[in-house]
């Protein structure tokens, strides 16, 4: 989800089940809670996660639906948070827990976690979208930057490393 949405871990940690709406094309996830970029007149995030019927193994929307189905029996009436810890007592996963899980996934994928951190997913997603021809306006709206924001240009739109270490580490798994 971090790669597909480009959102901060803080935002992912605030996802409530009641704010997930399914349509034929995918899932929409609304975040009404205050986040880092919240402010008067600013639009709150809405994550759009499409179904990838052609490649179910990469379909985040289907995986989320399965996750909700699997965790239905361990949720109590008070737990509306999407992400739950996987040990009893099951409770809402914190930002720190989600960050640790992303770091573990990056490490399992062969990515050097001394260089690339969980927040690197935001950089990777927004930079890849730009390289694939997505406009900066669409990228900014998707990840929650304002039209006037220079955040992408200053911090995220970085040249790719010419080293083959990154590609080699990913492809050997």
TrEMBL record:
<protein>
    <recommendedName>
        <fullName>Tyr recombinase domain-containing protein</fullName>
    </recommendedName>
</protein>
<dbReference type="InterPro" id="IPR002104">
    <property type="entry name" value="Integrase_catalytic"/>
</dbReference>
<dbReference type="InterPro" id="IPR013762">
    <property type="entry name" value="Integrase-like_cat_sf"/>
</dbReference>
<keyword id="KW-0233">DNA recombination</keyword>
<dbReference type="InterPro" id="IPR011010">
    <property type="entry name" value="DNA_brk_join_enz"/>
</dbReference>
<dbReference type="Pfam" id="PF00589">
    <property type="entry name" value="Phage_integrase"/>
</dbReference>
<feature type="domain" description="Tyr recombinase">
    <location>
        <begin position="1"/>
        <end position="170"/>
    </location>
</feature>
